[in-house]
Specification:
heterodimer; A: Rossmann fold; six-stranded mixed β-sheet; 21 strands; globular; B: about 280 residues; mainly alpha; ABC_Ni/Peptide_Import (chain A); ATP hydrolysis activity (chain A); transport (chain A)
């Protein structure tokens, strides 16, 4: 008998949504000692399914039909009190955002002890807490139990969350995108940890993710969700290597495959941008106590040749965004030279800088924050050229052409950004940058906030535009598979310094630096090559 | 726009406030029609209670019509409220914007200057300013504006601080827009909702301040105001209650209406609250 059985689960959406049901007719089982991955894009209903199992659905999303069993217990027939007793003891959940999931004012050990105390195991807490912290491979459990959450890194916090979830040895663990907010190397550690604990304790794990790499890394079985329905379900190897449903095929085809694209603009030897000895340090405090100094960028020399794409890869806090922002003068470096066609940009004043603004443009990470919500799309795209003296009517005409170039309807001109999806907004952001007819485009994680299929479309668009306009690009990303696909050369950053730089094939095929090797080893699903359709 | 009115109308109190405010405006506009001539004219016997000698709200100690005084006084109250708020907004928004956008040393300087004004009790400062500059309508407006800009500066600075680091502002920066056009064109429109809400409350506060100054005899001596009416009726309140009570009710209703409208605006302009209140 299965550990978890979901039968015909249907959850309604509030009226006025894009579909009547959040999830519809979900049938799902999780066996003991098995990891089932539920995979789908944002809005597909995977988190709703998980919350329905935990009995955590908000009142606005009522369950319409279906039954859920945990072992012999029918969860859907339990009272709220009974469910509360089951949560934590028989089934537990870990969440996506480790930074906010812990109470910032409570010591880590006390929070785990609280999980035990709630279920009447207060007396065991003293022995169990260090044991649990050791079980999730945290160093020095005794000292760590006395620490407050702010002293812990994201990965460590996620481990604490897992320790808390494991406190009462639940039979079922639900993990809702537990590694999405983490760096790749940390993600790999957490995935290994989940796998190890699961096999040691024989738990059933329902693992929610949007990343097929993670699925390939961890799953025994896979359920693919689309618009509230499970469209395909089966053993991991079958779904990953031989998908039957069109949607699964589309998703897998959209996974960045790491192979470089074929169409390339010819790379010349002409240097467009050269960074020499750039340094940026942030300091904090100083009135009382010690001054904390962070070297955000140092030893980051690189050159960009006309027509090439240089990838800046690294984990969060490695300084890759700061370096990119130095190039467009959003961050002022204290030292070094930044030569654009031989002219040093760093000492230029705001006014002297203006002519160069036209030639260096940027695409931002967050499509929801990078467009002014109070402006119409046409004005957003046209305002750059207008600022640089182009007549308004002409700029608006060009904006219309640019919308066509980024494959949006020119009717979008008079609408506001909030009427568009994330992928569409990112296209508007690209059109805004292209309106200036730049020669150098800086793309700061342009696809990391997008779903995998939208991500593939935006990457294809960027590749096409680059080939057509002969753009030089500085492409910042944390996703090595994306970098491998897009970039001619790769620069790996660690703690503010470029530790390795070279042609993509060389860096990936024969990494010299130990950090590069660690990064490459952490790519989830490395052993899996997505099938080609 | 329609959606905005709908979410505003969802707050019943705000609609009531708006209606009361419209009535006050109508009274100010029609004062010359309903009560022709100046309200200072003696038109009846003194101390007539409401209803006698064709006077709805009675007459004062010199036989002047209280109702005429209230109608004509509403003009001054609304004028002072509006003009001093505009002046205070101009001061507060520009200082707050400069501090929030530029940050660093300029921010420190502007905020210390703001705190300097905030540490002085605002009413005492207003009395002082009016007393120094002799009581005229412009000195009253000036004094009220000077004591009411600091909260605006603080709110605007806070909004600018958070908006400044948003990506769309950085994008404008990368496009090469000038500082002024970024501040006015990109940041300010996104900071507008709290400013609108705050300004409706500031008008209410300015009306109260003006009344208080007039009550103390620091209003413009040539103008009939609500505060003056209450002040002149104060000494005979046991003999002729209507002289202070009716202007008091006028102040009370106007200020309440403005506060209700302000709250309604704040609900309607806050996307997280809009739609939740029933």
């Amino acid at each position: 008998m299965s550990l978890l059985r979901v039968e015909g689960l249907t959850v309604a959406l509030p009226p006025g949504g894009d579909r009547p049901h959040a999830v519809e007719q979900i049938d799902l089982t999780v066996d003991r000692g098995e990891i089932v991955c539920v995979v789908g894009e944002s809005g597909s209903g995977k988190s709703i399914t998980a919350n329905a199992v935990m009995g955590l659905l908000p009142k606005t999303l009522p369950r319409k039909a279906g039954r859920i069993w945990l072992g012999d217990t029918e969860l859907t027939a339990q009272s709220p009190e009974q469910l509360r007793a089951l949560r934590g003891s028989r089934m537990a959940m870990i969440f996506q955002e480790p930074m906010t999931a812990l109470n910032p004012l409570m010591r880590v050990g006390d929070q785990i002890a609280e999980a035990l105390a709630v279920h009447g195991e207060k007396r065991r807490a003293r022995d169990r807490v260090p044991e649990l912290l050791a079980a999730v491979n945290l160093p020095d459990p005794a000292a760590l139990a006395k620490a407050h959450p702010f002293r812990l890194s994201g990965g460590q916090r996620q481990r604490v969350m897992i320790a808390m979830a494991l406190a009462l040895e639940p039979a079922l663990l639900i993990a809702d995108e537990p590694t999405t907010a983490l760096d790749v190397t940390t993600q790999m550690q957490i995935l290994r940890l989940v796998r190890e604990i699961q096999s040691r304790k024989g738990m059933g794990v329902m693992f929610i993710t949007h990343d097929f790499g993670v699925v390939a890394e961890i799953a025994d079985r896979v359920a693919v969700m689309q618009r509230g329905r499970i469209v395909e379900q089966g053993p991991a190897s079958a779904v990953l290597n031989n998908p039957r449903h069109d949607y699964t095929r589309a998703l897998i085809a959209a996974v960045p495959h790491g192979a470089p694209a074929h169409t390339r603009a010819p790379v010349t030897t002409e240097t467009v941008l050269e960074a020499k000895g750039l340094a940026k340090t942030y300091s904090r405090g100083g009135w009382f106590g010690a001054r904390a100094v962070v070297k955000a960028v140092h030893d980051a020399d690189f050159t960009l040749r006309r027509g090439e794409t240089l990838g800046l890869v690294g984990e969060s806090g490695s300084g890759k965004s700061t370096l990119a922002r130095c190039v467009v003068d959003l961050v002022r470096p204290e030292a070094g030279h930044m030569l654009f066609h031989g002219q040093d940009l760093r000492p230029l004043s705001r006014a002297d800088r203006k002519p160069f603004r036209k030639r260096i443009q940027m695409v931002f990470q967050d499509p929801y924050a990078s467009l002014n919500p109070r402006r119409r799309v046409g004005d957003i795209i046209a305002e750059g050229p207008i600022t640089h003296g182009e007549p308004r009517a002409q700029a608006l005409d060009r904006a219309r052409d640019l919308l066509r170039l980024v494959k949006l309807d020119p009717g979008a001109m008079d609408r506001f950004p909030h009427e568009f999806s994330g992928g569409q907004r990112q296209r508007i952001g690209i059109a805004r940058a292209l309106a200036m007819e730049p020669e150098l485009l800086i793309a700061d994680e342009p696809v990391s906030a997008l779903d995998v299929s939208v991500q593939a479309q935006v990457l294809a668009l960027l590749a096409e535009i680059r080939a057509r306009l002969g753009l030089t690009m500085l492409f910042i990303t944390h996703d090595l598979r994306v970098a491998a696909q897009v970039c001619d050369r790769i620069a790996v950053m660690q703690r503010g310094a470029i530790v390795e730089i070279g042609p993509t094939a060389e860096v990936f095929g024969n990494p010299q630096h130990s950090y590069t090797r660690a990064l490459l080893d952490s790519i989830p699903g490395r052993g899996w090559t997505p099938p080609v359709f | 726009m329609m959606a905005f009115f709908r979410s505003f109308a969802r707050n019943k109190g705000a609609v009531v406030g708006l209606v009361v405010l419209a009535l006050v405006f109508a009274m100010a506009g029609l004062a010359d029609v309903i009560f022709p001539g100046t309200p200072w004219d003696m038109v009846a016997a003194p101390f007539m209670p409401p209803g006698e000698m064709d006077m709805w709200l009675g007459s004062d100690s010199l036989g002047r019509d209280v109702a005429a005084g209230i109608a004509h006084g509403s003009r001054i109250s609304l004028l002072v409220g509006a003009v001093s708020t505009v002046v205070a907004l101009a001061l507060g928004v520009s200082l707050g914007a400069v501090a929030g956008y530029l940050g660093g040393f300029v921010d420190d300087l502007v905020m210390r200057f703001t705190e300097f004004f905030q540490t002085i009790p605002s009413f005492v400062l207003a009395i002082l300013l009016v007393a120094i500059f002799t009581p005229t309508i412009s000195s009253v407006v000036f004094a009220i504006a000077v004591v009411s800009w600091p909260p605006v500066a603080r709110v605007v600075r806070a909004e600018f601080l958070s908006l400044r680091s948003r990506e769309f502002v950085q994008a404008a920066e990368v496009l090469g827009k000038s500082r002024l056009s970024i501040v006015v064109g990109d940041i300010l429109p996104n900071a507008l909702s709290p400013i609108i809400v705050l300004s409706s409350l500031m008008v209410a506060n300015a009306i109260l301040l003006e009344s208080a100054l007039s009550f103390l005899g620091l209003g413009d001596p040539n103008l009939m105001t609500w505060g003056f009416l209450i002040g002149s009726g104060r000494s005979v309140i046991r003999l002729a209650w209507w002289m202070s009570v009716f202007p008091g009710i006028a102040i009370f209703l106007t200020v309440l209406a403005l506060n209700l409208v302000g709250e309604g605006l704040s609900d309607a302009l806050n996307p997280r609250l809009a739609g939740r209140r029933t």
